[in-house]
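Hello,

I think I submitted the S-adenosyl-L-homocysteine job twice by accident. Can you confirm which output corresponds to this input? Input:
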Amino acid sequence: MELRDLKSLTMEECIEVAEKLGEKGFRGKQLYKWLHHNRVENLDDMKNLPGKFRDRLKEEYYIANVKIVRKQVSKNGDTAKYLFELEDGKFIESVLMKYKYGNSVCISSQVGCRMGCTFCASTLLGLERSLTAGEMLSQIYKINEETGERVSNVIVMGMGEPMDNYDNLLRFIRIINDEDGYHLSQRNITVSTCGIVEGIRKLMQEKLQITLAISLHAPNDEIRRQTMPVANKYSMDEIFEACREYKDVTGRRVTFEYTVIDGVNDSKDNALELARRCKGMGCHINLIPLNEVKERKCRRAKEENIEDFKIILEKNKINVTIRREMGGDIDAACGQLRNTHLEQSAH
Ligand code: SAH
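Support: Only one job matched these inputs. Its output is below.
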């Protein structure tokens, strides 16, 4: 029989498991707290659970985990990239960024990605599989344990497209937010999507207080289609419409990410067009200098073009920041470390 992962279960489901195995419901709650509050990795360390219950659990369940294979720390020490191995031998990566306000972790939601953006390293080998909620949680718990410091912000912006793994994403958010678990505030969670409109609509119905980030990377559909195949499926008009609704329903302003690529989307006209379209959206635009990926042709825009781009948006009263660069010296672009590792182990 295939074992099921306990770490991916909600508290209610843990209670059901306990009752199904002939225990009182509160044993399920204890189990859940061991997993998410104390973050214990083995059933045998859950001291207040009856031995019989633990033995019965072991027959049908396991506890998902990730193993640190490599850790690269940037020269100034503010960024660390973790390469994790999953139980089935696949690799994912997470990035820890230390800010004054706390430790932020960028997690992966899938092994690989099938969105095919032409500047991105995660998608080079396609999608292998989606992560379970337990595997998403494990990235945070492991980094928390390894650093001995609490992770205070989580960004689902590593490898993978979170909306392509919607149910596990939601489960992950519910569990990490739960006051009997890690108890991370929804406001400290950001989910980034390449703009899957059904996903945005579904997510707004959950009425969460998380931040939604959209990878826009273009001022119009024509340019967007050059780098993002998903732009053939959803137009920017449809995405903007969904974002307006998202803001109306949740009260949360949406962030647009805009990776600035030399000669593709970095002209003054591009900035003006973007400003025009974003007017009245109440959005925030995050300009990201491209991390060059060696297998890809896209090049980073010149510093002064990025600065001009920002000034044009500001003049048009659009809220804009340039993402502070972190981890450029440690293959911090999504999927780069995993690719380097897979290449090296192939030799
Ligand atoms: N699939 C989701 C989340 C993962 S990608 C999404 O598309 O939003 C996280 C962000 O990093 C996206 O905005 C993505 O477009 C961007 N990105 C990917 N590769 C990059 C690179 N090489 N340099 C800069 N940004 C990159």
